[in-house]
Design a protein that fits this description.
Layout lengths: L1 H16 L2 H32 L4 H10 L4 H26 L2 H4 L9 H10 L8 H43 L30
């Protein structure tokens, strides 16, 4: 039964992880679009600041000094920080192979981009080498993970069964019987009195 469950876990892992190379490729494409749009917005912000004779940071400080523009200042700081984070992730994902991206899930944590890809993604049978390798890794990982969980869950029952088996074996073990000890027959002591002549014994 445990082997059947482990096999099911391996198949599920293979089916799920085999989609990762294609999903990561579509995520990278969406991520590139997000970075391009944020870059355009930041360039416009920098151009506006330059027209007023200020740099980016000077413009942000001037906005924070006015109550009416403090909210915009916070929004622009979040936008600039998000652009830097996404651009760094995009650079790392583009430099990696599809197999290497399997070890970089932390580079695919932008919620908006992930949700957009998830809504439009359609699972398909993997035909690439990366998809086949991912399926194999998913099968091994699913089998090992589910096997470990089931092993931990059934460990108390296995210990109890072993203890009962040992107890039953000890109870049915035959007792060793030693053979009876034979005592030597006692000899009658010889009399030192000589028998009388003519006397009958």
């Amino acid at each position: 039964m445990i082997r059947i469950l482990c096999l099911a876990g391996g198949i599920a892992g293979a089916a799920g992880l085999s989609q990762f190379p294609e999903f990561s490729q579509q995520y990278l494409q969406r991520l590139g679009g997000q970075v391009d749009e944020l870059s355009r917005q930041i360039k416009e912000f920098d151009a506006t600041a330059l027209q007023d004779g200020m740099g980016r940071e000077e413009m942000l400080e001037a906005m924070s000094a006015l109550p009416l523009t403090q909210g915009q200042e916070a929004m622009w700081r979040r936008t600039i920080a998000r652009h830097a984070r996404l651009n760094e992730n995009m650079t790392a994902l583009r430099a990696a192979t599809p197999i290497e991206r399997m070890l970089m899930p932390h580079r695919m944590t932008d919620r908006d981009t992930f949700q957009a890809v998830w809504q439009d993604y359609t699972p398909a049978v993997p035909v690439s080498t990366a998809g086949a390798a991912a399926a194999g890794a998913g099968f091994v990982g699913g089998w090992a993970a589910l096997g470990s969980v089931l092993g931990l869950l059934t460990m108390p029952f296995r210990r109890k069964t072993r203890a009962q088996t040992r107890t039953g074996t000890a109870a049915t073990k035959p007792t060793r019987m030693d053979p009876p000890v034979r005592r030597p027959a006692s000899e009658q002591p010889k009399s030192h009195i000589r028998p009388l002549s003519g006397a009958r014994r």
